[in-house]
Amino acid sequence: MVLGLNLLAVFAFAVKGLAGFGPALFIVPVLGLSWPLRQVVPYTAFLLFLANLPMLWLVRQGLEPRRDLPAAAAYALGLVLGTRLLVTLPEARLKFALGLVLLVFALWSLVRLPSPETAPPLNAAELARLALVMLTGGLLVGALGAGALPLFVYLPLRYPPAAMRALFTSAFGLGTLVWTLANWQAGLLTAELARLALLSLPGTLAGLWLGARLFERLPHRGQVRAVALLLVPVALGLLGLF
To answer: What is the reported pTM?
Structure first.
């Protein structure tokens, strides 16, 4: 099992380095085909928390506290609320919803829209929109383990790559800490799941290194589309159509 988890981590975190996707988009649905989501989600949350610690240090120069901290807090609140849904909703409904979100994400990746060159003005209206997007994204991820579709749609349309990366990293950095604590408080994060996440760190680090190397060598947009389409059969499997 540990070898399989490390191989999955290598692939998922290589995709993160290459295409910028959250690795949970692959870890959660693949494990969800055979594990209950109430085990997959806390395992993934703790693994992402460990992986995001060095990412926060790497993007520290691009952080904008007045924008990023409220956004991260809204995302963390969504994760806490989503965790309550994970505890209460039936497993079959959760997996169906996850499959639907992944299918929409894969289809959205085929749309090519240019990123803006500058960030929008940091006014109250933009902060409110950003907080709503983050809250909704956190709610989906907290309940399903993956699928922050509102973030993947809104941020690339409004923010240039550097600002978007800082927003993603700050939100995921604080969010995965709160998410892990929420899963622990709900009794979902067990010692065995935490042990498996720690044993998956070699694959995680190898995947991050591999993704960074691939990013330097391969055309970016085509790879994003190709990788996203790999989610289609997994999404159909969760929907019971494949």
So the answer is: 0.84
